[in-house]
Amino acid sequence: MRKTFILIVVCFLLFNSTAAFADWGESFYIVGDLAVARPLGIAATVIGGAIFVACLPFALPSNSVKSTADALVREPFGFTFRRPLGEFKTDVSYVPSDEPGKKTKE
Fold first, then answer.
1. Residues 55, 68 contacting (CB under 8 angstroms)
2. pTM of the prediction?
3. Cα–Cα distance list, 44 to 30, 55, 71, 104 (Å)
């Protein structure tokens, strides 16, 4: 019971105190990226790879292997390993694209 209470208090303080850290600037985003977003990105890449292997028998006959791999493996990999630390732009893809005119950051 005590551990649950401490966990709830810590989570409340972490998620409720973002206004207090607003003046930290970029360093707050870098620490949050390193502590939260990168580990989640690694997990998403691994889980996406496993789901991709499971979906492969269905993607092969429909000729959708590339789009399936892009969505499940390449996007999480690009988000995790190619994105600059602390940058959370949603209008830029960090995966090299074959499409001309699509914004990418390489």
1. yes
2. 0.65
3. 19, 16, 11, 20
Other CB atoms within 10 Å distance of the CB of residue 74: 20
Q: What is the mean pLDDT of residues 85-104?
A: 70
What DSSP assignment string belongs to 5-63?
A: HHHHHHHHHHHH-TTTTGGGTHHHHHHHIIIIIHHHHHHHHHHHHHHHHHHHHHHTTTT
Helix (H) or strand (E) holding 94: none
* Contacts (Cβ under 8 Å, ≥6 apart) of 72: 48, 49, 51, 52, 55
pLDDT for residue 7 = 72
Query: Phi-psi region for residue 86, left (φ > 0), alpha (ψ -120 to 50) or beta?
Result: left
Backbone angles phi, psi at 67, to 5 degrees: -70, -35
